[in-house]
Amino acid sequence: MAAAAQPELNAIPPPDNDPGGRMSFFEHLVELRKRLIHAAVAIVIGTGIGLLLSKHFITFIVQPMHMALRSAHLEDNLYYTSPAGYVSLVISLGLYLGIALAMPFVLYQIWLFVAPGLFKHERRAVAGFIISSMFLFVCGLAFGYFVMLPTTLKFLIGFANEGPIKPLISINEYFDLTLVILLGLGIVFELPVLIFILSLFGIVTPKFLLKNFRYAMLIITVAAAIVTPTPDATTMLVFMAPMILLYFVGVLVSYVVLRRKQADAATGEAQ
Questions:
Q1: More confident residue, 25 or 97
Q2: Percent of the chain clearing pLDDT 90 (strictly above)
Q3: Structural domain tally of the chain?
Q4: Is the pLDDT of residue 4 over 70?
Q5: Where among 170, 189, 208 does a domain terminate?
Q6: Are residues 204 and 148 in the same domain?
């Protein structure tokens, strides 16, 4: 009977055939090296494509500055003040475009490295994680380009009509300002994704986020004061509004994650 029972015991599948989290330290290092190489190759290829497209994007980048100058009844010319200024702009813009193009693949590589340490039901979030990250980042760029940048430039250029001094805008300095605003807002818009990851690992909960909202509000105010390139309160409030909204979106995301984990735990106990 023991011999007959042995095949039945062997036929019973283990509770979890998932090898995730069973890699040795050396295997983790090999996997990390593999993902870093793939991400680096993607960035190199993206940068090559970005350099080919950067000249066409310059016209798009300078449009808010042209509109601000025209609204102040000034010449809408931008200048570069060094012989290599324009070439430097093309290379810099190409590099950032390349990173932006490669970012979906880079995020995918990051997830492939992290995923083996997660359960199967947590891995199902891979598609939503990548898509939502890129979507929110693009929303941050769009908000910065269509709302924040014009508001900031209108405020800054508005001083030109209050005195005899006229602006001579350097294209490189304008690009640096644009980069700070767009990338800053792109990163800020990733707040719900960050809260999703923290909630997934049980670091934060909806109750914790709501209870500590006053501290989050303080951090948001300080961050807005640091990142906002102008001293006026209106621009600062324009910057703070999406951050507060995204925080409450993150609370909702944390609630959904918590309910999902509770449902999975209840299902596991029932089985």
A1: 97
A2: 32
A3: 2
A4: no
A5: 189
A6: no
Q: Is the pTM of this model over 0.90?
A: no
Q: For 184-215, give the secondary structure using H, E and C.
A: HHHHHCCHHHHHHHHHHCCCCCHHHHHHCHHH
Measured CA to CA, the distance from residue 23 to residue 109 in angstroms comes to 17
The last residue of a domain, from among 160, 189, 218:
189
Rounded-to-integer distance, Cα 187 and Cα 193, Å: 10
| Residue 209 domain-assigned (yes or no) | yes
Domain extent at residue 224 = 191-271
If asked whether residues 248 and 173 sit together in one domain, one would say: no
Q: pLDDT digits over 177-215, tens only?
A: 899 888 888 888 999 988 988 888 888 999 999 999 999
The rounded distance, in Å, linking the Cα atoms of 268 and 271 is 5
Question: C-alpha 10: how far from its chain's center?
Answer: 48
Kindly state the tokens that stand for 199.
């909630």
Q: For the residues of the chain, what is the DSSP string, one character each?
A: -HHHHHHHHHHSPPS----TT---HHHHHHHHHHHHHHHHHHHHHHHHHHHHHHHHHHHHHHHHHHHHHHHTT-----B--STTHHHHHHHHHHHHHHHHHHHHHHHHHHHHHHGGGS-HHHHTTHHHHHHHHHHHHHHHHHHIIIIIHHHHHHHHHGGGGGSS-----BHHHHHHHHHHHHHHHHHHTTHHHHHHHHHHTTS--HHHHHHTHHHHHHHHHHHHHHH-SS--HHHHHHHHHHHHHHHHHHHHHHHHHHHHHHHHHHHHHH-
